[in-house]
Write a structure and sequence with these properties.
It comes from Gemmatimonas groenlandica. It is found in: Membrane. This protein folds into 3 domains: 143 residues, no CATH class; 82 residues, no CATH class; 244 residues, no CATH class. It is 66% helix and 3% strand. It has 24 helices and 4 strands. Helix 2 crosses helix 4, helix 12 runs antiparallel to helix 13 and helix 21 packs parallel to helix 23. The longest helix has 34 residues. The chain starts with 22 loop residues before the first strand and ends with a helix.
Length: 621
């Protein structure tokens, strides 16, 4: 009867490469290939659940605070504006929990949310470098598509499992991967049993080759390590089978049982490998692999301890001299990794896996992204964003057509046939228009909310509009279908509302409300739509690039358009909350605000100082 030896647990001091784990290779600036272990669906899901729990707990705390403040300020809101300001602030906090939790943690904590930190996961760029704010924002805004349907994350799970690099749609757009970051805490110094130590004779030269191949030694090693787990009969059967297989390598001593001969052979082979002897049948560079490990294992262990300390507190904890030594050691480690990879000839090895994890950890630490500064933010908003707007004329023109075309058609349809409004608009808008006829006669404005509520209004309007632009951007990952739908439906809604008020003879009522903020808000909608279309073009029309490279490159460009849209919406929200509903301001005054915003917007987008020309040049596709 054939016998087999069950897989053994890892030997002390060794870490076997996970056989079921997916890995991805990246090349460092030192031209050394690193293998990262991709995070599995289970660990990512667990990290997500932890983050969800944190978000929900924070959200509940905010809701409780809102309810308490409503009790305190609600009745006296007309006399005390502090309550409205607090409510507005809480609205912004809720928005931040929903959209900014992941972005800020990943961008500021080097790719780790609290959930990912607990699960020892990290988001990195495809090249192994630290994730940037831009990449973090892109992957987490596209989460709006990944979590469909209704927070069940079915889209994300399907794409992760069907992608060789475990990417969801957000990772594809951002050019990121999620990797495991377990650092081996024990060095891989080859094991030597006490029996082998006792028999070692340092006066004898190290043998050039061991008597067993690596595969044979692994088989023997598994048996010796687990022999006591078998009952006596099973142990005897396995020992007899192995003794027959290794008969030519065993010391033929009739006084010894087969199991004793196998243990002695194991100790001899273990001692030889610990001193760097090559395995039998190894040729060329492969003969060096055990010697590389035996010679350098102490230095690797020391580097592992330094790396663990630096990962906990940053490179600054090492001091100037320590950082200099760390960089020097890192370069030596990359050379060791290249030599060991050549010696193992691409085969899986616990030593190679261990050394790869050390170098990968140091690589991520050394090439961590620069600190985000106020100066960089200003450069981004006032140089990069306008430059991208000027460079993206085609998607902007298409987005404008999809917005203003349906807007004009819907407005004309409702003006010509007012009954069409009931099909295109919700009942609430129809009722507001009917009431608007009477309000216009009394000299009232489009909205008659008390002035004290305007901070809260501005907060709600701004956060809602920003979320709409996020959806339009993320819709680019549906090949642009969701983006086009969002633009068309927004155009129809706005056009139908305008047509309804005009058909009732109160067009000035809605124009006086829209005019102050309309220029900024409509421009922002167009930019967000253009961002989604630009993202979709990376999937549909990659040009000379691969589809993956085009998607990442245009995703970065699209993010700049989206950032411009959000920037404009912040100002539009303030104007819509404080100026647009103010009935004491005349239509001429509001038109003047509109004209001023248009002039400022034109200067912002199209004024090209000489210093901005390099920014434009680097955006060329």
């Amino acid at each position: 009867m054939a016998t087999s030896i069950p897989p053994a647990p890892s030997a002390p001091g060794q870490l076997p490469r996970p056989s079921l784990s997916q890995t991805v290779d990246v090349e460092t600036p030192e031209l050394v290939v690193l293998s990262y272990t991709l995070a599995g669906v289970g660990s990512r899901a667990t990290a997500a659940l932890i983050d969800y729990a944190i978000c929900i707990a924070t959200f509940v705390a905010v809701i409780i605070a809102v309810l308490q403040l409503q009790v305190k300020f609600g009745v006296a809101a007309s006399r005390d504006s502090s309550g409205a300001w607090v409510m507005a602030l809480l609205g912004v906090i809720q928005f931040a929990i929903l959209w900014l939790y992941y972005v800020l943690f990943e961008a500021l904590a080097d790719g780790q949310t609290p959930g990912k930190r607990i699960m020892k996961l990290r988001v990195v760029k495809d090249g192994g470098l630290s994730v940037t704010f831009e990449a973090s924002a892109i992957r987490n805004i596209v989460r709006a598509i990944d979590l469909q349907p209704i927070f069940l994350y079915a889209v994300g799970l399907v794409t992760i499992m069907s992608n060789a690099r475990g990417k969801r749609l957000g990772d594809m757009a951002a050019g990121t991967i999620v990797v495991k970051e377990d650092l081996v805490s024990q060095p891989v110094t080859p094991r030597r049993s006490s029996r082998a130590d006792a028999r070692a004779d340092t006066s004898k030269p190290v043998p050039l080759s061991a008597r067993l191949t690596d595969a044979e030694f692994q088989l023997l090693d598994r048996f010796v390590q687990r022999r006591m787990e078998f009952d006596a009969e099973r142990r005897t059967q396995l020992a007899a089978g192995l003794a027959h297989r290794f008969s030519a390598k065993l010391t033929q001593d009739p006084a010894q049982l087969p199991i004793a001969q196998l243990v002695r052979l194991h100790d001899t082979e273990l001692a030889a490998r610990a001193q760097g002897a090559a395995a039998r049948n190894d040729t060329g560079a492969a003969r060096e692999k055990h010697r590389i490990v035996a010679t350098n294992a102490p230095r690797w262990a020391s580097f592992a301890n330094t790396l663990k300390s630096a990962q906990g507190g940053g490179l600054s904890t090492l001091g100037e001299d320590g950082v200099r030594r760390f960089v020097q050691d890192y370069r030596e480690m990359t050379a060791d990794l290249a030599r060991l990879r050549t010696a193992t000839r691409g085969q899986e090895s616990s030593d190679l896996f261990y050394l790869n994890r050390l170098v990968a950890g140091a690589h991520s630490l050394l090439y961590r992204r620069r600190t985000f500064t106020l100066r960089r933010l200003i450069t981004f908003l006032f140089a990069d964003v306008p430059a991208e707007v000027r460079a993206s004329g085609l998607p902007i023109a298409i987005a404008a057509t999809l917005l203003f075309g349906p807007m004009a058609i819907a407005a004309r349809a409702v003006i010509t046939h007012p009954s069409v409004a009931a099909t295109l608009l919700p009942q609430g808008m129809l009722a507001r228009a009917a009431k608007g006829v009477e309000d216009a006669k009394r000299g009232k404005g489009y909205i008659e909310d008390p002035e004290v509520y305007r901070p809260m209004m501005a907060s709600q309007i701004a956060t809602n509009n920003v979320q709409v632009t996020f959806v339009a951007f993320a819709g680019g990952m549906t090949a642009g279908l969701l983006t086009c739908w969002a633009l068309v439906m927004n155009g129809v809604s706005i056009g139908a509302a305008l047509g309804l008020y005009i058909s009732k003879g109160i067009g000035s009522l809605i124009f006086s409300f829209i005019a102050p903020h309309g220029v900024l808000e409509l421009t922002a909608i167009v930019l967000a739509g253009a961002a989604g279309l630009l993202l979709a073009s990376g999937m549909l029309v990659p040009g000379n690039r691969t589809r993956r490279a085009a998607l990442v490159q245009r995703g970065g460009r699209a993010f700049r358009l989206l950032a411009g849209a959000v920037f404009l919406l912040l100002f539009a929200g303030v104007i819509e909350g404080f100026v647009s509903p103010n009935a004491t301001l005349s239509l001429q005054t509001k038109l003047a605000v509109s004209a001023t915003s248009a002039v400022v917007l034109a200067i912002y987008l199209f004024y090209r100082p000489r210093a901005a020309l390099p920014a434009t040049a680097r955006l060329a596709p």
